[in-house]
Amino acid sequence: MSSFSRVRKIWIPTLLIALVIVSAFAVQLLNSNGSQSQTKADPGVYVGVAFGGNTTAQAKALIDKVKDYTNLFILDVGRNRISANQTKVEDICNYAVDNGLSVIINVGIKETGNPSEWGWFWNQSSLDAIKQRWTEMWGDKFLGIYYNDEPGGVQLDAAWRQFFEYAGEHLGNIDFPAFQSLNGIYEKLLNYIDNGTKPTPDDYELEANFFIQYVVMNDPGIGNLTAAGIPAFTSDYGLYWWDYMGGYSTMLAELGWNNSVAEQIDLVKGAARLQNKTWGTMITWRYQQPPYMDSGDNIYTQMLASYQAGAKYIAIFDYPYNTTNPYGVLTDDHFAAMQRFWTDITTKKFADMSQPVAALVLPKNFGWGLRNPNDTIWGFWTSDNRTQQTALVTSKLLSYYGTQLDIVYQDPLFPYTNIGYQHIYYWNSTTPS
């Protein structure tokens, strides 16, 4: 995940629209050579770290540290000197695979126009050749590409009001579909300002279409990954339902920032279950300053909650690196928690909380952030009496069901009545159906 994403949100709309103008949004089994992979237990889930360092030496040191109690290494370096270099990417991933780990690789953003220095992966006519190369090198240890970061969170927290104040009246004159979609949203906002008319809970089709089509689906990187059949991963903290609809194969819910762990799990789990996708969790910062991460005991609890809820991937975000700790922000306390978690899930039985028990059904296209009663709707709209009611119902159900609740949305494409939930609740009622 992007470490400074919340600081940068104010620039995101302008950068997003600039990309639209430039590009119009165009665009087998190999085993490890080491004995470790032959003797290590299979926990039935991918458990590991998301490396955010700067050098090959740092990456290999982290692999050496965790290889006995993990089976996943996410090269989560994004747009830095490592992802800019194919040789370094493959050197690190070779080392990870040789030590029994599967790999997910972040090779930066698909750029159009002038190639950037980190564009080697995307400067190919197609990604078929690199997919074939990496599959031949690593077999099923190559799980996919980590692409972009927090698209839903960016949508929720971007400075859309300032953007519309600057560019709103000109949107209708720009002949690109994304601008036309934004112009329709701008006109809705003007109607609210003039007449006090807010959308009804099922009247967010323009907002949902903008996000699905122009933020995710028509992103040139997602398009290239989809065309090549390479699974696309990213982490987020909201709007998972529409992340999946836009084309992501796997979403990793960010557990951190003092947000509700159960709520984030229930949101991503419900979306994945109904849309037949895979999901996981990315345990990230609790604090915006050192020590950044939560305690080892709390991280263990979050990992176990993810595991019992049915996560396929559980990773810990390791960023930033500094000169005093060779393992980034991870300390002996965190490594001990990871090792304890690995030992426990490979030697003990835990209650399976992954089966469909209860669902909370929200209105179609109701892209409310759900982090607090005053969260935004699609980043464009403020909260209202409907969000207050939804917050109340959500809080009650979370306190009762915990991670055994799925939070889903009304959509005829994904009927929740086919899942077999024991109880179904709706946003405006606590009465089971």
Walkthrough of the structure:
The protein has helices at 5-8, 12-23, 36-39, 56-66, 86-98, 128-138, 151-157, 160-167, 177-195, 205-217, 220-228, 240-246, 261-275, 296-309, 332-347, 385-401; strands at 46-51, 72-75, 102-105, 142-146, 232-236, 250-255, 278-283, 313-318, 358-362, 405-409, 423-426. It is of the alpha/beta class and 433 residues long. The chain has two domains: 5-154 and 212-347, Glycosidases (TIM Barrel, Alpha-Beta Barrel), CATH 3.20.20.80; 358-426, no CATH class. The strands form two sheets. It has an eight-stranded parallel barrel with strand order 1-2-3-4-5-6-7-8, surrounded by eight helices. Strands 10-9-11 form a three-stranded parallel β-sheet. The radius of gyration is 22 Å and the shape is globular. The model is unreliable at 4-8 and 14-38 (pLDDT under 50).
For this entry, give a set of tags.
alpha/beta; eight-stranded parallel barrel; three-stranded parallel beta sheet; 16 helices
Question: How would you concisely characterize the structure shown here?
Answer:
The chain is α/β, with parallel strands linked by helices.
Secondary structure elements and their pairing?
Elements: H1 5-8, H2 12-23, H3 36-39, E1 46-51, H4 56-66, E2 72-75, H5 86-98, E3 102-105, H6 128-138, E4 142-146, H7 151-157, H8 160-167, H9 177-195, H10 205-217, H11 220-228, E5 232-236, H12 240-246, E6 250-255, H13 261-275, E7 278-283, H14 296-309, E8 313-318, H15 332-347, E9 358-362, H16 385-401, E10 405-409, E11 423-426
Parallel strand pairs: 1-2, 1-8, 2-3, 3-4, 4-5, 5-6, 6-7, 7-8, 9-10, 9-11
